Amino acid sequence: KVALLIGNMSYWNHPQLKAPMVDVYDLTNLLRQLDFKVVSLLDLTASEMRNAVSEFLLLLDKGVYGLLYYAGHGYENYGNSFMVPIDAPNPYRSANCLCVQNILRQMQERETGLNVFLLDMCRRRNEYDDTVLISDVLKVTANVVFGYATCQGAEAFEIQRPGLANGIFMKFLKHRLLEDKKITVLLDQVAEDMGKCHFTEGKQALEIRSSLSEKRALTDPI
């Protein structure tokens, strides 16, 4: 079980963020309790992000559980999600960012047993980027789970109040992550917990996409 965690905060040309450092720290500790080998990185440039992903892919093999967590600026165009490096220009386009779906395709080539993506970023459309990426068709495999911190076209929030150092998504995820439940069931319960939060009511709701047909949990012994 292998996880790559990236938290981008100190952007050169965009608003600074605060929660990713705490979120990555908390998630690292929780995943290690579940016997994940965790690589945690903060404030990466585009080249550093690409290098980190390349090294992460080398750790994957047949049957391995791979988890990618990203907290930072992001956007979604035409069904593709993009993670924004700290050195991205203003405005940025797809060439300046990393496409999550391309990473998934490469993970599938390693015949991983489970692919989990937890994306704590905005999913609004980037009006400056009209590129339509035509990536290789993703394999139809029953082992992919996406947990988006917010719905398509919406923003993800971090609220600076006492006791809320985490981003909203991680605030609720960390209380559930160690539970021995199918990953989609666990994320469903996180979504319900978030739905009771008055800070984000009507603004941010967890979205889950899954092609999981077997009972796979982060607690599984590998």
Report on the architecture of this protein:
This protein is 26% helix and 20% strand. The chain has 222 residues and is α/β, with parallel strands linked by helices. The chain has a single domain, classed as Rossmann fold (3-Layer(aba) Sandwich), CATH 3.40.50.1460. The strands form 2 sheets. A 6-stranded mixed β-sheet has the order 2-1-3-7-8-9, with helices on both faces.
Task: Indicate the topology.
Elements: E1 2-7, H1 19-33, E2 37-42, H2 46-58, E3 65-71, E4 74-77, E5 80-83, E6 98-99, H3 100-109, E7 114-120, E8 144-148, H4 168-173, H5 183-195, E9 207-210
Parallel strand pairs: 1-2, 1-3, 3-7, 7-8
Antiparallel strand pairs: 4-5, 5-6, 8-9
Compact description:
This is Mucosa-associated lymphoid tissue lymphoma translocation protein 1. With 222 residues, this protein is an alpha/beta fold.
Structure characteristics:
222 residues; alpha/beta; Rossmann fold; six-stranded mixed β-sheet; three-stranded antiparallel β-sheet; 5 helices; 9 strands; globular; Pept_C14_p20; Mucosa-associated lymphoid tissue lymphoma translocation protein 1; cysteine-type endopeptidase activity; Pept_C14_caspase
